[in-house]
Specification:
heterodimer, A: 314 residues, mainly alpha, 72% helix, 0% strand, B: 108 residues, alpha+beta, 4 helices, 67% helix
Chain lengths: 314, 108
């Protein structure tokens, strides 16, 4: 088998079966012609062959000339969109997954080492899975041919003001309801013990400091939203205040939840006595999840507030 | 010559090598001979450029090809098709127009 035959074989490895026969014919002719030309310039047979094949280059790049298949996974038309979506998902979903995995793993098993191990494993898995599906989807989209052409109407609106009166009303109402529940649940008679007294869901011990603290937090939160309504946009001081509020809620809430001090032990006893099973663990995890669900949007808001405040300074 | 100038010179050649091929292939010729003919006329084309170009022009219907099996080794001859001759005339007209425009621009 000559060097040329080996070369042509190597090229064909990269081609779909349908393209191989034609590539074989074309390359035989082309290489032979070029070798003739090189020989006419005085090279020996072997030298000429090596020169010509070397000049052709890597078999894969030659193969690209003999197939109609696309030589790109995601072409220029969709590349930037693919990249933006991928980076967006990686920077938003993955941190949430990582944090949630760590918190749940540590909370349920209490082993720092295994919690870290599990978190790393799941984080890597999340990165790879998201990367794969976004890329595969865009590879398909890129080959799907003509989509509807983009029209000017598809342009996103300029950013709306961050706060309208209706927004302030809605958020304040929710916060007031939340504060109201914190107060009401203490004297609720939803669950009563043997003596007929009400058993609150949250640990009554929290009333000495933490529950008043969170009520104050709610008031400050509402005040921030009103201030935002008046300034019309995120300023740096407001953004800082927002970030402080995020920390002021999340750190104590998470610590209380993780050290199992949120739930009233009396309610666990009472409900277990009535037949509920494994309530302790379930409520423990629920508390953590609820705190994270509140902390998540707060964090998101804090980050985006900073971005908007900084963008305005330019 | 620096890289930027090289790049533009390359583009200029790329834009006109099709015209050159269509003209030269009014008489049937095989790949390597075309390459040498172009080089002799002053068109320095790479074989890695020319051969894929010939295939592309054939797929577009501007060239026809024939296998010459009379000799020991089969050879592939290319020749400008009638459609190719038509396109060649269009390109020639355009070339004259561009030359006139360029002369005007240079004068002013």
């Amino acid at each position: 088998m000559t060097l040329t035959d080996r070369y042509i074989d190597a090229v064909e490895q990269y081609l779909p079966k349908a393209d191989r026969a034609e590539a074989d014919r074309e390359l035989q002719v082309r290489i032979a012609e070029e070798i003739d030309g090189a020989r006419a310039s005085g090279a020996s047979d072997d030298q000429a062959e090596r020169e010509v094949l070397q000049r052709l280059g890597h078999p894969a790049s030659v193969a690209g000339q003999y197939t109609a298949d696309s030589l790109v996974l995601v072409g220029p038309k969709h590349y930037l969109q693919w990249r933006r979506l991928l980076l967006l998902l990686w920077t938003t979903l993955v941190p949430v997954i990582t944090l949630a995995t760590f918190v749940v793993s540590y909370a349920t098993e209490g082993q720092l080492g295994s919690a870290i191990g599990q978190t790393i494993g799941i984080t890597v898995g999340a990165i790879v899975t998201i990367g794969f599906w976004v890329t595969a989807s865009y590879a398909v989209i890129d080959r799907a041919g003509q989509a509807e052409p983009w029209t000017l109407d598809a342009l996103p609106e300029a950013s709306d003001p961050p706060m309208r009166p209706s927004d302030v009303l809605g958020i304040s109402a929710t916060l007031v309801l939340f504060g109201g529940w914190l107060i009401w649940q203490n004297s609720s008679r939803l669950v009563t013990d043997a003596s007929g007294a009400g058993v609150p869901a949250l640990d009554p011990g929290l009333w000495s400091f933490w529950l008043p603290y969170f009520l104050v937090w709610i008031l400050v939160m509402i005040a921030t939203k009103v201030a935002l309504l008046r300034t019309g946009r995120w300023t740096l001081p407001l953004a800082v205040g927002n970030a402080v509020l995020f920390v002021a809620f999340t750190v104590p809430a998470l610590v209380l939840a993780l050290s199992d001090r949120l739930i009233n032990p009396a309610i666990v006893t009472e409900l277990t006595a009535r037949g509920a099973q494994d309530l302790d663990n379930a409520l423990f995890l629920t508390a953590i999840v609820v705190v994270l669900c509140i902390a998540g949007p707060l964090l998101w808001g804090a980050i985006s507030a900073f971005r908007k405040a900084l963008a305005h300074r330019r | 010559m620096d890289e930027t100038a090289d790049g533009h010179v390359h583009e200029l050649r790329r834009g006109t090598v099709v015209m050159a091929c269509l003209v030269m292939l009014r008489e049937p010729e095989y790949g390597y001979a075309l390459l040498e003919g172009l080089a002799k006329a002053g068109y320095d084309v790479d074989s890695n450029t020319l051969y894929p170009l010939l295939r592309r022009l054939e797929k577009q219907g501007l060239l026809t090809s024939e296998w010459d099996t009379s000799e020991a080794r089969p050879r592939k001859f290319y020749r400008t098709s009638p459609r190719g001759a038509q396109v060649q005339r269009v390109l020639d007209d355009e070339w004259r127009r561009l030359m006139a425009a360029w002369t005007t621009l240079r004068r002013n």
